[in-house]
Give the backbone structure.
Amino acid sequence: MFLEEKRLAKESKPTYNNNNYYFETRKNRGPKMKKNDIQLGATYAGFSYFLWGLLPIYWKLIDNVRADEILANRIFWSFIFMVLVLLFTNKWRAFTQTLIGLAQRKKQFYALVIASILISINWFIYIWAVNSDQMIQASLGYYINPLVSVLLGMFVLKEKLTFIQYFSFSLALIGVLIISISYGHIPWISLALAVSFGLYGLVKKLITVESSIGLTLETLVITPLAAIYMGYLFYQGDNSFFSSDLKTNFLLIGAGAATAVPLLYFAKGAQKIPLSMLGFLQYIAPTLTLILGVFVYEEHFSGLELLAFIFIWSALTVYSLSKTKLFTAKGKKARTNS
């Protein structure tokens, strides 16, 4: 999540550029953060991670529906929900102007398509993992995601890492090796979630638009395919939507709001708090998912898995501390003295 959260955290107030479409600019970031806003921002962001952490409960309520149909409904109803949000928040004109702008900028349009595909893959794997009793692996994926994102930044964006950050990666690698030994195979669910979301965040760096408009655009790209697939299931008589009980139908429709609401709260919070605080708050979601998997849904959690998670948690602690002012100040002082 780290690259995507970093991008959202840098978003500014909306503005129209010379081409008259709705893109964010780094020059228009709005007023400097006020101390009395930080508490409110932390509440918004923390609440969004709390919702994301409890989202497996929602998918478990419809585990009688196949993951592919849940995904199709999630995409379709997310788009419908976000259109309503844009209409009620008077952002529809901004959305249409952004759409026109993307049509003129082929590079950003292709980036949008790739981002839409990547987030759809990520959603599918997560839903399938949760409803296949692989919640612990899913939580591991989002624990290691920040480290995968930094690796992508190093290899793709040529960003440089410090010694302590290399050390944190070593700890994480040991953790992944231990859990691979425990499972008897590489934890591909965790790695697929981390890599797909890391790549999604990387691609999103090319598309700098306001968060609610961004989610609407991403779901717009995939919605035609989702609608066609839902129609295909109806034609084959293999659909759960409208052929199951009323509760299942409402939960499938509600998947749109369940997807969008946490993101909207996150976007509000990210604008008000420092990135370092956001980095610590992001571990709320996988921690809650892990707790749900072990204590509520009673997934098997061996001693080796606990040891692996300890290495992962240690890696995240080291990495997070390396991004604090204390460590960055020491690094600058050491470079100055040398």
In short: The radius of gyration is 21 Å. The chain has one domain: 2-337. DSSP finds 14 helices and no strands in the chain.
